[in-house]
Structure formats: C-alpha cells, structure tokens
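Before relying on records like the one below, remember that each one covers exactly one chain. Contacts with other chains, cofactors or solvent are not represented anywhere in the record.
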Amino acid sequence: MPIYLDHNATTPVDPAVLDAMLPFLRDDFANASSVHSPGQRARAAVDEARESVAALIGAKPAEIVFTSGGTEADNLAILGVIKASNAPNKHIISTLIEHHAVLQTCQALEKEGVAVTYVAPDANGIISLDSVRRGLCDETVLISVMHANNELGTIQPIEEIGRIARQARIPFHVDAVQSVGKLPIDVREIGADLLSLSAHKFYGPKGVGALYVRSASHLEPIFRGGQHERGMRPGTENVPAIVGMGKAAQLARQHLAEDATRIAALRDRLESALCESIPGIRVNGERAQRVCNTTNITVPGASGESLVIALDLQGIACSTGAACSSGAIEPSHVLLAIGLGDVDARSSVRFSLGRTTTVAEIEQAIGVIPAVVERLRALSPRFPATIPVAVGRAN
C-alpha cells in the first residue's frame, strides 16, 4: 500500500461511513421527496444527516443546504448573494489565496460588472484585518475569506473578519472546506452568514457537500427545477452520499481533538526531520498558525512536479498543491501571492496527513524523501553542487 500524504486533496471513506451508506444504495433507495413509506424513510435519513452536519459547525438543521460539494457551495454562496442584492453597483472583498471555486467565480462576476477587491496576504499567507477594512466601500455586498488554506494550511483570523463584516452589516462567507473536521467551528462565534464544507475532506464520500445559510440571509438559488433544500438547491437528493456525510460529520465531532493532537505530532516530526536532512528547504507559512496536518515545502533544485512523480514511484503520494490544479502550466497562485518567485513556486510540494497516517509511514517517508531530493538535484543544471546545510527553515 502507498503512503498516502495527500489528504487535503481527498480523504479515504471511513468504513463506518460506507456501512451507513450501503443500505441506501441497496434497499432504501427511494426518492426522499416521495410521500410513500419508502420515500419517508429516505427523508428521515436525510433529516438525520442534516442534524449531524449542523451539529458539527454549531448551526441549526434548517440552516444546512446540501450540495454536490464545496465548489457548488462556494458558487451558491457568492452568486446567490449577488443575485439577491438590489444594489445598483456591487462590490466583493476576497483574497488572492482563495480556492479556484471562489477566485474563478469572482473573476466571472467581474466580467458582468461586479467590482472585486482581492486582498493580498503577508509572507506567511495571512490576511491582515486592516487590509479588509481598507477594502470596504459603500458598494460592498459580500466578504468571502477562506478559513484554512488548502495549500499552506494557514488559518485566517476569521472571527475578527466576521466582526468587521457584522459592524459593516455585510454578509460574510467562509470557505471552510479545509478546516471542517480539523478545527472546532461554531458559525455563531465566527460570525459567518454562509459557510461551505465538503464531505470528502473529512472521510465522507465525494460528490456531496453543504452550505450553511444563516437564518434570514438573503440568497437566490443558482439552479432552477424544484423546491428541494428549501428551494435553495433543486434536484433529487443524493440520499446515500448525504447519509455518508452525516455519518462522517458525527465521527469528526467524536475524533476531532484526538485526531488533531496525533496528526500534528506526526506532521511536526516529518517537517523537522526533512528540514534537518535536506539542505536549503523552506517551510511555507511556517510562522503562521496552521491546521494540524499540512506542510508545504519549497525544495530548491527540484521541480515540484518531478518530486511528486519520483515519490510516487517510491510509494509516497503527495502533491504540488490543489488537486483541481493538477496539470496546470502556471505555478501556484497561493505561493506567488506570499512572495515566492516563479522558480521556487514550481519547486514546492505539499504533504497533508490524515486519520489513517501512522508513525511507521512517517518514518518510512523520512527515510525515502531526502534521497529522492538528492537524486533530482543532481540532475538539475541550475542547482549548485553544494549548499549551506544551515539554511534550514524559512525566516
């Protein structure tokens, strides 16, 4: 079995989640909108899952709208607010390090005349509160800031940004796809009006997610075709996937503290060992608060893509960044935004650990990765024959 260190791309389905889903793929297959008994059993299962997802983020069940995943949830949040606004001129505040589901939605809206301010992070990937305040104007109708960055793992000051939004009476959307299941989240405490999450990031199935929509929030649906999900998301509910998401949410609540402590220790062990054994590498976002499982490392003299392929041949799965950007020609927009040059951005890899990661796997990875880096550096015409060992971690 490969050593899987790409949990930010997707997590394995927990066996208990699969067990919960199977009856709704085999026997209880009815449409949850049907009024007969089989349909009502499916409806009850959806309602139970809604309660579990709501409990995970401190919401009310009626505030959960099931979607096909985090990308749809982000689109529904942003486009839904814009469509619901009657303002003649509309302005959004977001950041340069958002997931493409947010960035590309904002870019599409710009072509329709919506103004967007993209706040830049500091060198550690953190957005300053003053930069958010400076972005506010009379036309601002939405602030959208991610909670934890998918490439760096850096955690944004969401509660403080939420207070800024409340004081300005502006809806606040949080893309929490990479933080749900890793950090305690209470939508009331962080002041979110809208919050996106995706099941396959916390050991649930792919193809299902949710958008928290605070009661009394003004949101227009982006699809038409029925009154499912309180009219916010038409279409027959994916009952097995929703049931799986509910079970995954229940397990996440039970294991969150234990998982965070254990995984953080493994991440720190991997990070420190690589910094000690590979001259010149830098940990991106090291000085910022990060989620427990993520480390993003720049390896001068080794192409990130080549390193991912070489490690895969050695049985170690990692990535150069967001899974949705695999095969992209351009370097990571996140790494460029924190000040890395083009070459360094292309020489970076992300290791993201998870609930299934073991001590033995980390020790094995520590034994393999330095040799692979050395081999790739020997093939690089731009890498010097020697580099000071003392360089180590990023400043």
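The longest strand covers residues 140-146.
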